[in-house]
């Protein structure tokens, strides 16, 4: 069976005011994993999501629209007080609505309020859309990590300082 162009769903345009950002729950994990599968070549195992949820309930967030999980972000505070964004993804049907930016803003605020000296993340050098978002939020490219991903692609390590965040929290 082949798909025609009318069978492929178009991205949905929705007002950001209808999106709720809240802490993830155990009941959200299957939807988070669905978005993970749709978004990344490599996926984290379910056990990692469970462990992360238990350890970081304030900074594992989901975006919800009409009862449907449409995005998530996973952030945490390291013992050295580095905030770190481990993963962020938005359902492909809902991209372009500002959901990723909104998720990042909330997790950044929470990490800074918890005392993060700075916030770091890794991103594929080919992921121009994400890089533009991070730069818009104030992240700076600090270095290239050669062969970071299992397919051999390099990553940028990017950092945001509370000063660069400019008191948005």
Automatic annotation (TrEMBL):
InterPro entries: AcTrfase_RimI/Ard1, Acyl_CoA_acyltransferase, Ard1-like, GNAT_dom
A cellular component term, taken from the record's GO annotations: NatA complex
Keywords of this entry: Acyltransferase, Transferase
Keyword field contains Metal-binding: no
Taxonomic superkingdom: Archaea
Gene Ontology molecular-function annotations: protein-N-terminal amino-acid acetyltransferase activity
CDD domains: NAT_SF (cd04301)
Domain (N-acetyltransferase) ranges: 19-163
NCBIfam families in alphabetical order: rimI
PANTHER family according to UniProt: N-TERMINAL ACETYLTRANSFERASE (PTHR23091), N-TERMINAL AMINO-ACID N(ALPHA)-ACETYLTRANSFERASE NATA (PTHR23091:SF4)
Record protein name field: Ribosomal-protein-alanine N-acetyltransferase
Originating organism: Thermococcus litoralis
